[in-house]
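Lab manual, section 2.4: Encoding a predicted structure.

Procedure: take the sequence of the chain (445 residues), apply the prediction step described in section 2.3, and record the output as structure tokens. A sample record is shown.
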Amino acid sequence: MSHPDRLARNSIDGGRIIYAVDTSKIVSLRFPTFWFEPTPQGLFMLQVAFGQSKYYSDNLAENIKRGVRQKLRRGEWLAKAPFGYTNNPKTRNIEPDAVKSRIIVRAYEEYAKGTYTLVSMAQFLADHNVTTKAGTPLGKASVKRILTNRAYLGFTKHHDEYFPGSFAPILSPRQFEAVQKILASREHKRKVRGKHDFPFANLFRCAECGGMFTAQWCTGKSGGRYRYYRCTKKKGNCGARYLREDLLANQIKERLQTISLPDRYTGWMLNKIGEWEREETATNGSEIQNLSSEIKASEERMDKLVSTYLDGDIPKPTYLTKKDALMRSAAALQEKKKDFERGRKNWVEPLREWILDTKQALVLGSSDNLHEISNFVRKVGTNPTIQSKSMHFRASPPSENTARLRAEMHRALAFAGLGSELNPDEVSFCGDILTFARTFYEQQP
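Recorded output:
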């Protein structure tokens, strides 16, 4: 190589070479006009050379882009002339070829009659010596490119965008549009295979082998089409049987009903949470105010201690001991204040969200929107499995406690209250559920 700038025209290549020098993989570089040794001065000079090469490369790219923009403003063709044109070195533009341009016009006129296909047009062009380098007829894609090339209208192209050209067109707009109509009428939309709509796919695991449950369509004896879920059996032989989608959906709905609560109960709970929140805000507000006062007092004691030390009234060991105690005390007060400030977020919002989930479970328990049901199970359920054609999944401890209390209190489960006010049994039932849930979320980190 004649110069180090040939090694690195971008920052990545230069960085790799510098790293190779640092790791002693390269110990010497010599060029006719430059030499390098692995010393701090040599590394610096090498980086300077690489920086100059990067500048040269970036400047060259900018000049080329500027030249392209100028050619586009003048309407000049930027690259090799398309078939039917020839490059003119004197004008630095293209001009219609005397023979090939007539072939293009003839091809458009013949195709506009509607009697040619792309294959027969390829043969027509081959009869006029327009072939591939191997002498065979052009492919259909090549023929279509010729029949849709806007350069024949006098347009120049750059980055899939057309601009007005300053060269002579070969075709008139009428000839070009006539061919486009024929092509558009013969186009066939590509058939896109639709995706299967299996809402519970990749949701459940097989309890026997641990493999995922997938889904497929099956045709019944009477000709009906059904969606079934089955074990993929990718982890070995498995005896899990198929489970029809409607039966699986019914099992999920029954499970959601056990962890759901009606609007009357959730409304009472949300109001109760509002009361707790207001009480805690008032309590925390006074506590936070007291902590702020203590923190301010601690800061004043610290300032006084520093002033006393600077005045020389206490020795340095005593000063350091008292300062350390004050700093640890202030840190403890700040942490306690932060705990009170974020205490509401630690349990109120998760508890409120859980109650809203119980409302949604009631709605989805009678819904036919399987995708919403699937998304909800993914949100609230853990370890969803299928065993012996039966679905199982665990919910959060508050939800499991709700299901247990519902199973124990059949009278409360009837939800027979007609008025907006809850009777004492219902209040007790909701209170037990809410107290358990609050205790759970208060204990979460």
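Check your result against the sample. The CA atoms of residues 380 and 396 lie 7 Å apart.
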